[in-house]
Automatic annotation (TrEMBL):
<keyword id="KW-0456">Lyase</keyword>
<dbReference type="GO" id="GO:0046872">
    <property type="term" value="F:metal ion binding"/>
</dbReference>
<keyword id="KW-0627">Porphyrin biosynthesis</keyword>
<feature type="binding site">
    <location>
        <position position="30"/>
    </location>
    <ligand>
        <name>Fe-coproporphyrin III</name>
    </ligand>
</feature>
<feature type="binding site">
    <location>
        <begin position="46"/>
        <end position="47"/>
    </location>
    <ligand>
        <name>Fe-coproporphyrin III</name>
    </ligand>
</feature>
<comment type="similarity">
    <text>Belongs to the ferrochelatase family.</text>
</comment>
<dbReference type="GO" id="GO:0006783">
    <property type="term" value="P:heme biosynthetic process"/>
</dbReference>
<keyword id="KW-0350">Heme biosynthesis</keyword>
<dbReference type="Pfam" id="PF00762">
    <property type="entry name" value="Ferrochelatase"/>
</dbReference>
<dbReference type="InterPro" id="IPR033659">
    <property type="entry name" value="Ferrochelatase_N"/>
</dbReference>
<comment type="function">
    <text>Involved in coproporphyrin-dependent heme b biosynthesis. Catalyzes the insertion of ferrous iron into coproporphyrin III to form Fe-coproporphyrin III.</text>
</comment>
<dbReference type="GO" id="GO:0004325">
    <property type="term" value="F:ferrochelatase activity"/>
</dbReference>
<dbReference type="GO" id="GO:0005737">
    <property type="term" value="C:cytoplasm"/>
</dbReference>
<dbReference type="InterPro" id="IPR001015">
    <property type="entry name" value="Ferrochelatase"/>
</dbReference>
<dbReference type="InterPro" id="IPR033644">
    <property type="entry name" value="Ferrochelatase_C"/>
</dbReference>
<feature type="binding site" description="axial binding residue">
    <location>
        <position position="13"/>
    </location>
    <ligand>
        <name>Fe-coproporphyrin III</name>
    </ligand>
</feature>
<keyword id="KW-0963">Cytoplasm</keyword>
Length: 311
């Protein structure tokens, strides 16, 4: 008897694969409106700044998708899992992933986003695109909305905080400000009672409790330039405030909203925030990204399996 097949649509933001793809990628983000020469130069410069223009996100995402497929099949050998990639702003697009599943004869699928926290503007948008395409194709698909308090996720993030605190040497723990961060979104989500900010605080509180960290706060990063207010305070403003008003000289940043090394981590934190910290005389450290950490893969395996209908 053949095993029941489950397709898993693994969704993420996407990234260009080379510098010559940056303009098309940015145009897609801007809903078909090409960036100005200044905007294009700014984004291209940022990519060039991270290890010479190497694009780690695409490779990291490929590895995460393969690692999840391997983990699902190891954890649940009674089923046969195949993972498909679906990107928001680059090929293969979300719709492409759904089409491939259908072409491969998949009848039952689960969708999951490589982001632990739900917002209608982020994860909600991925789900809607996949849902619309699946309905058009006649595919039965269920979606993981969030997994921000999964025990293995909290364990993985907590161990990173504990390990990174050691980089401050003999500095007492209560003199180190831990700043949890995530990608900012437009402030209008607050009027919509969107769960995103509270889910992020719940994750932060769980990590702080597990690690015994009492000196912590939340900060936002990587806000878009849209002319409308985005959630703050931004991490750069946080660094200015804690150094000037609180005389804090040691900061650990834990970007809980990001699960792999990419531009918002490697540039916005490792270059931009690090430069600001240096100018302010602040010792700044960042926790390593989850990438293919077995605890993160275990988290994803659990939440995907929970939505599988077993025959």
């Amino acid at each position: 008897m053949s095993k029941q097949r489950i397709g898993v649509l693994v969704m993420s933001y996407g990234t260009p694969e080379s510098l010559d793809q940056v303009e098309a990628y940015y145009t897609h983000i801007r809903r078909g409106h090409p960036p100005t020469p200044e905007q294009l130069k700014d984004l291209t410069d940022r990519y060039e700044a991270i290890v010479g223009g190497f694009f780690p996100l695409r490779e990291n995402t490929n590895k995460q998708v393969q690692a999840l497929e391997d983990r699902l099949n190891a954890d649940h050998p009674e089923l046969s899992f195949t993972c498909y990639q679906g990107l928001k702003h680059a090929a293969p697009y979300i719709e492409d992933g759904v089409e491939r599943m259908v072409k491969d004869g998949i009848r039952q699928a689960v969708g999951v986003v490589l982001a632990p926290h739900y917002s209608v503007m982020s994860v909600g948008g991925y789900i809607k695109r996949a849902q619309d395409k699946a309905a058009e194709q006649g595919l039965d698909i269920r979606f993981v909305k969030s997994y921000h308090l999964h025990p293995q996720l909290i364990e993985a993030l907590s161990s990173r905080v504990t390990d990174t605190l050691l980089r401050f040497g003999d500095v007492p723990k209560d003199e180190i400000r831990v700043v949890f961060t995530a990608h900012s979104l437009p402030e209008k989500i607050l009027e919509m009672k969107d769960p995103y900010p509270e889910q992020l605080l719940e994750t932060s509180r769980a990590i702080a409790a597990r690690t015994g960290v009492s000196n912590w706060q939340f900060g936002w990063q990587s806000a878009g330039q849209t002319g409308t207010p985005w959630l703050g305070p931004d991490i750069l403003d946080v660094l200015h405030t804690v150094s000037a008003k609180e005389r804090i000289r040691h900061v650990l940043v834990c970007p809980i909203g990001f699960v792999s090394d990419h531009l918002e981590v490697l540039y916005d934190l490792d270059i931009e925030a690090q430069q600001t910290a240096s100018e302010l005389g602040v010792h700044l450290e960042r926790t390593p990204s989850l990438n293919t950490d077995p605890l993160y893969m275990g988290t994803l395996s659990d939440v995907v399996y929970a939505l599988c209908e077993r025959n």
